[in-house]
Amino acid sequence: MFGFHAQTVYDVGVAQLTKSGITALLCLAAWIAVAQEADRRWVVGTYRNPALGYSVTVPRGLKGITGDQAGPERGLRISLRSGGVISVWGEPNSLEWKNPEQGVRSTLSEEKCASGQQDVSTTRIGKLNAATGTLVCSGRVLKTFLVFRSGGGPIYWLRLETTSAHKLQDEAALDSVAASFNLIPWE
Known about the structure:
Elements (H helix, E strand, L loop, with lengths): L5 H34 L1 E3 L2 E4 L4 E4 L6 E3 L8 E5 L5 E7 L8 H10 L7 E9 L2 E10 L2 E9 L6 E9 L3 H14 L1 E2 L4
Antiparallel strand pairs: 1-4, 2-3, 3-11, 4-5, 5-6, 6-10, 7-8, 8-9, 9-10
C-alpha cells in the first residue's frame, strides 16, 4: 500500500519553503539594487541641494555622484584622479555643537588613528563661520571643513580623504570646492 512517512512530508515542505524564501530574498535584493541605481546621478559643474540650502561646483574634469546614499539626498562624492575622495553634505546640527571647531574636533577624535597629528583652526567659507581640521595618520590624510549657517539651521561638511603622497594636489581640489560653496534659498 501507499504509506507516507510524516518526517518525509515535513522535510519536503521545509525544503520548498527554504527555496521560496531564498528566491524571495534574492528578488528583493535585486529590486533594491535597481532602485538605488535609478536614484544615482552624475554631477558635472554645479551641484545644487535646495532641500538643505547650498550649492558647490565640482572642479573641471571631475564628476560627482549623488543619490547613492540611504535616506534623503544630503550631498555628493567627488572621486579624484589620485584615488582620493571629496564628500560634501549638509545635515542638522543634531549634536548641537556650539561652533564649527567643536564639531571638527569631535569628528576627528572619532577617527581610528594611534599616532595621528591633528590640527584644527577657524576659517571662513565666504561670509560664513567655519573650521578646518586635518588628521595625518600612517600615510592617510583626512581634511575637513565644517560650515555653520548664520542664525542656525543645517551645518555643512566638506571632507577630503587621500594619501600623504597626493595631499597637496587633492587639497587644491578641496579648496576649489570650498571656494565655490554658496548658500541658496531653501525649497
